[in-house]
Amino acid sequence: MIRSILPALLLAVTLGQPEPLSRAMLATFPPVSGEQKMLVIDYPVDGDTIDMAFLVPVRCRVFGINTPEMRPRLRDANGRERSKAERDAERAAAIAAQAYLKKIMPVGTLATVKVEGKDSLGRTLADIYMRAHGGTSLGEHLIQQGHGKAFLP
User: Fold this and answer.
1) Could you read off the pLDDT of 81-92 as tens digits, one per residue?
2) Among 8, 15, 72, 115, which residue has the least CB neighbours within 10 Å?
3) Global pTM value
4) In this structure, which long-range contacts are made by residues 1-7, counting pairs with CB atoms below 8 Å and at least 24 apart in sequence?
């Protein structure tokens, strides 16, 4: 899952880790609900899911937002079969959302993460704040840019 150890090393150097990594520090990763941590972007999986890392890899789902799916469902929420054109349009929108996410938060970017819990797929639900953009909420930014919609699981 981790593309390289460089992002974790970059984070440790950037934060000026004053003490060696301890068992207590390792025990707090991945972060648990209510915690706020600084993590490094490892890979944007799609528009609302990001692999992040520090001491261990963490797959985060951006809390409060839903973006188009890379693998669109065959049926909509009402059970109606979706056409190939509808699915292709959703996939194109998903690719655009992922590309935008890669552009604004490339691999190695530092982000502040506030954990909200876990989703049904075991991903860490997190509010992610973009340090390079003045601490702006990633979810709110993606919604404002038209790449997602507000969604609470």
Assistant:
1) 999 999 999 999
2) 15
3) 0.74
4) 1/42, 1/43, 1/51, 1/53, 1/57, 1/59, 2/42, 2/51, 2/53, 2/57, 3/42, 3/43, 3/107, 6/108, 7/40, 7/41, 7/42, 7/53, 7/107, 7/108
